[in-house]
Amino acid sequence: MLERDLPREGSLIGRTTALVRAFRAPKESLGDLNADVAAMLVAAASDIALALDADGNIQDLAFQQAGLPLELSNTDEWIGRSWQATVSEESQTKPELLLAEASQRKVSRWREVRYPAARGPDIPILFAVVAIKGAARFIAVGRDVRATAALQQKLIEAQVTIERDYSRMRNAESRYRILFQITSEPVLIIDALTHRIVEANPAAAALLDHGAANLIGKLFPDALLLDDTATSQSLALAIRSQGKIERTKIRLDGGRDYLLDGTFFRQDTSSLFLLRFTPQGSQLAIPKATDVNTQLVQFVESAPDGFVITDMDGRLLHANATFLQLAQIENMHQILGETIDRWIGKSAIDFSVMLTNLRQHGSVKLFSSVVRGEHGSPVDVEISAATVGASGQSRLGFTIRNVGPRISSEGSDHGYIPRSREQLAELIGRVPLKELVRETTDVIERMCIETALKLTGDNRATAAEMLGLSRQSLYVKLRRYGMAEPSEEDSQLE
Q1: Is 109 within 8 Å of 129 (Cβ atoms)?
Q2: What angle do CA 476, 478, 484 make, to 5 degrees?
């Protein structure tokens, strides 16, 4: 029994290895097949079959699909021509490689070859070549992989949609989580079946003189220490039966009066109560301005987005921990007095554009840019900025959000996001056209490289063929855009 692993290549058919097993005794099981029978078998096993001479010229051809010859361009002129002359320009090297492999191994690997279509985009055909023993001839069998490509595209689109929805849900959860934590009103979430506390915000923990973690799992209403036990036990029944209760007066242990709002809701398979407590009358506590300011500063310092304060020339005065992490800086003292464009900007013009807009309009919203870390590759960010303070003491405040994991609404996740038409329009007259064209070209080039690598499963050789580049040229561009480590490139070029 002869077994061999023949890897399948190409951007459309798997990057996995298919196990091929030859017939154990072909002469006994198949007998002496004549040419007509062999031709029928080859034609039936493939969508297109080519009979080639030793020089790679087409001697004969067969189609299993009736419509395929009509979709391909000039198939009636193929006989007598070189196989290489019938394929698309980007696949010019594929026939020669297939024939060379078949000459050495008798059976080549599968390679995708593209053909010009009578109309529309090129048609991908997955080919393998078999060398005929004893005769200086080859048989090339091909499979139309457009259906597979379409299926893969649908799977990719479905995955992108799922990831986009997940990202949107996670962002929404983050926003509501922050709101839940910072609200001044005590809020409890109760399991409707067990009447045990599922979640409690810091205000609720302070109200009940417990740590928030200590409240989790405690039984409602025991955890509330209500004076009127009968009333407290009826609250859950009222919320469940009515769906909600509003402004219900309750008295906690110690004579503290509160108004209770309760809502019944479902989450997945769980039934939950949301309880919100509002102090009555003079007990309504209004936070002091100093306390609010302190909490605001604490929030900025611990926020998941980067916050930076600079002078009007962009020199750093303060940065929170998230920005230091993005810029790969150990502590803030290392960056004080440095201009922010040392870390921010796809090119030298980004910061000047933001600075000009801030001075003219007072604010900038959702400006696409990157943060260049001290020791790593750029991170895609969105920047919003505003001018704060009185004249003569004005400062610039920047909010920097990492959008690297975000999936764009178009269904792609390229590392660089092209500028919008509005952003490009703002650059006209401020930046030389040569720099604008160069930057735009770089963005498009990187997007094409990333797409090719994604389609080929990060197969650099196949990606280079897809882009019409030599492997050396591709590795140079990968190094230029920070997409490969130098050690990796060196080993690939050896």
Answers
A1: no
A2: 115
pTM: 0.35
Residue 210 has pLDDT above 60, yes or no: yes
Nearest-CA neighbor of 323 among 346, 337, 343? 343
- Residue 82, CA distances (Å) to 64, 141, 143 in order: 22, 16, 20
C-beta of residue 361 within 8 angstroms of C-beta of residue 334: no
- What b-and-e string marks burial along 203-232, b requiring 16 or more CB atoms within 10 Å of the CB? bbbebbebebeebeebebbebbebeeeeeb
Cα–Cα distance, 358 to 426 (Å, whole number): 12
| Cα(186)–Cα(261) distance, integer angstroms | 11
Q: Is 54 left (phi over 0), alpha (psi -120 to 50) or beta?
A: alpha
Q: Residues 15-61: pLDDT tens digits?
A: 333 335 666 666 666 666 666 666 777 767 788 889 899 889 998 88
According to DSSP, residue 151 is labeled H
Task: Determine the Cα–Cα distance for residues 249 and 473; give it in Å rounded to an integer.
Answer: 75
> How far is Cα 185 from Cα 174, in angstroms, rounded to an integer?
19
Mean pLDDT score across all residues of the chain: 75
Domains and CATH numbers, the chain: 3-144 (3.30.450.20), 185-283 (3.30.450.20), 287-417 (3.30.450.20), 432-494 (1.10.10.60)
Token pair 């609250």: residue? 235
* Residue pointed to by tokens 């067969």: 62
